[in-house]
Design brief:
The protein has 10 helices and 14 strands. The strands form 2 sheets. An 8-stranded parallel barrel has the order 1-2-4-5-6-7-8-14, surrounded by 5 helices. It is globular. The chain has one domain (11-268, 336-376): Alpha-Beta Barrel (TIM Barrel). It is α/β, with parallel strands linked by helices and 380 residues long.
Length: 380
C-alpha cells in the first residue's frame, strides 16, 4: 500500500443518545467500507472534514515496531488523532477504529517480532495494549511483506508460519480483553495481491483468526518495468493473462482456500503517472521513460480529466480508466466513478466483504466514496 495506524479517548465519554441527529446505523447486511487514514507523517488528521457516516471502519496508519513491540512513532500526534477519530462516533456510533501496524516503511522488524512464540506473544500484547488504552476496536496488520525484502526488511523463511501465529496471538489477546470490556474486537490484515505473497504465507490457515482480509489490489503497475500499465485494473485482457488484476488476485485467494466473504477489495483513491516513449494506444502498455506525479482523485477530476490536454480513456477489457496527454506523452492510471461501480458490482456478485481504500484524503471531495456509498446502499 502506500502504506497504513492508531487513536485515543475513553469510549464512555462518547455515549450517543439514540436521537442524535446525524447518527448512522451500519447494517450488518451491507458490505463494509474501510478507509485507511494516514498519520504516519506525524500530522494531525483533519477529522472535522471527514464524513464518518460514509464509513464502516477506519484503519489508522501507521503504528511502528520498536524493540519487537508495537510502538507509537508519533505518540504526541497519534494520541490526539485517536481522540479525535473516536469523536467521529458521535456522528456514526457504529464506526470501528483500528490501528494498522506496519506499512511499506515500518514493516522492517515484523520478522524479528514474530520469530519466537515468546516474542510474538509480547508483540501481540503491546498492540492490544494500545487498543485498550485508547479505546479502539482492533488491530490491522500491514506487513509488507512476509518472507520478502520489501523496503529493505529483515526477512526469513520462518515468516510464513510466524505470520499465521501473529494472528493467532492477536486473536487470543483481544478475546481476553473482550472478556473484561464485553466488547468485540477485530483482527484484520492488509495483504499483497501477488502470487509471491501467497507463496510466503499460509492464508488458508491465517484466515481462521481474521475478520477481514484487505486486498491491496492497486499498485500493480510497479510490477512492470517495461510498460505503462494500469495500477488497479479489475481484469486482465484476454491476450495478456500474465499481468495482474484485481480479479486474478481474488481468484488466486479462492484457489488457496480463502473464504471470499472475508475478502475486502482495495481501491486506490489516487492516480499514478508515467512519461511514455510513444503515443501509440494512448500511452497504454507503451515503454515508460520515467515516473510522473499522478495525484489524488479529487485533483485529477477537478483539474485534469478532459482538461489541459489530458483525455480520459476507458479500457473495456480491463474495466479501467486512464488519462493521456499526447503532446506531453503523459499517461495516468487511476480509478474513477465508472471503474469503482464495476468493482462494487464485482463485490456484490462474488459476495465479498466489501471495499477498502487508500487513502481517505486523496479524494478530499469524496467523489469515489460517495459512489461506493450509493452502490452499497449506505444512506445519509
Amino acid at each position: 500500500m502506500h502504506k497504513r495506524t492508531l487513536f485515543s479517548i475513553a469510549l464512555s465519554c462518547l455515549l450517543v443518545p439514540a436521537t442524535a441527529l446525524f447518527s448512522f446505523a451500519q447494517k450488518s447486511t451491507k458490505p463494509v467500507i474501510i478507509g485507511y487514514v494516514g498519520g504516519y507523517d506525524g500530522n494531525l488528521v483533519e477529522t472535522s472534514v471527514m464524513e464518518a457516516s460514509r464509513l464502516s471502519h477506519i484503519n489508522y496508519a501507521f503504528v511502528d515496531i520498536k524493540d519487537n513491540l508495537a510502538w507509537l512513532h508519533n505518540e504526541k500526534t497519534d494520541t490526539v488523532n485517536f481522540r479525535n477519530l473516536n469523536k467521529l462516533k458521535l456522528k456514526n456510533p457504529d464506526l470501528k477504529i483500528l490501528i494498522s501496524v506496519g506499512g511499506w516503511i515500518w514493516s522492517k522488524h515484523f520478522s524479528d517480532a514474530v520469530l519466537t512464540e515468546a516474542s510474538t506473544r509480547l508483540f501481540a500484547q503491546s498492540a492490544v495494549q494500545i487498543v485498550a488504552q485508547y479505546h479502539l476496536d482492533g488491530v490491522d496488520i500491514d506487513w509488507e511483506y512476509p518472507g520478502m525484502v520489501g523496503d529493505s526488511n529483515v526477512f526469513r523463511p520462518q515468516d510464513r508460519t510466524g505470520y499465521t501465529n501473529l494472528f493467532k496471538n492477536l486473536r487470543e489477546e483481544l478475546d481476553a480483553l473482550s472478556k473484561k470490556t464485553n466488547k468485540k474486537y477485530l483482527v484484520t490484515t492488509a495483504i499483497g495481491g501477488s502470487r509471491e505473497f501467497l507463496q510466503h504465507t499460509q492464508m488458508e490457515m491465517a484466515q481462521k483468526y481474521l475478520d477481514y482480509i484487505n486486498l491491496m489490489s492497486y499498485d500493480f503497475d510497479g510490477t512492470y518495468d517495461n510498460m505503462a500499465a494500469h495500477h488497479s485494473n479489475l481484469y486482465a485482457p484476454a491476450n495478456m493473462p500474465y499481468i495482474y488484476s484485481t480479479d486474478i488476485c481474488i481468484q488466486n485467494l479462492k484457489k488457496v482456500g480463502v473464504d471470499l466473504s472475508k475478502v475486502v477489495m482495495g481501491i486506490g483513491f489516487y492516480g499514478k503517472g508515467k512519461i511514455t516513449a510513444s503515443t501509440e494506444n494512448n500511452g497504454l502498455y507503451q515503454i515508460p521513460v520515467r515516473p510522473m506525479f499522478g495525484g489524488g482523485y479529487t485533483f485529477l477530476k477537478d483539474s485534469l480529466v478532459n482538461k489541459k490536454g489530458f483525455v480520459r480513456h476507458w479500457d473495456a477489457a480491463s474495466q479501467a480508466s486512464y488519462l493521456f496527454n499526447a503532446d506531453k506523452k503523459i499517461f495516468i492510471t487511476y480509478d474513477d466513478e465508472e471503474s469503482v461501480k464495476k468493482k462494487c458490482d464485482y463485490v456484490k456478485k462474488y459476495k465479498l466483504a466489501g471495499t477498502m481504500f487508500w487513502e481517505y484524503f486523496s479524494d478530499a471531495k469524496s467523489y469515489l466514496l460517495k459512489t461506493i456509498n450509493e452502490e452499497f446502499g449506505y444512506q445519509r
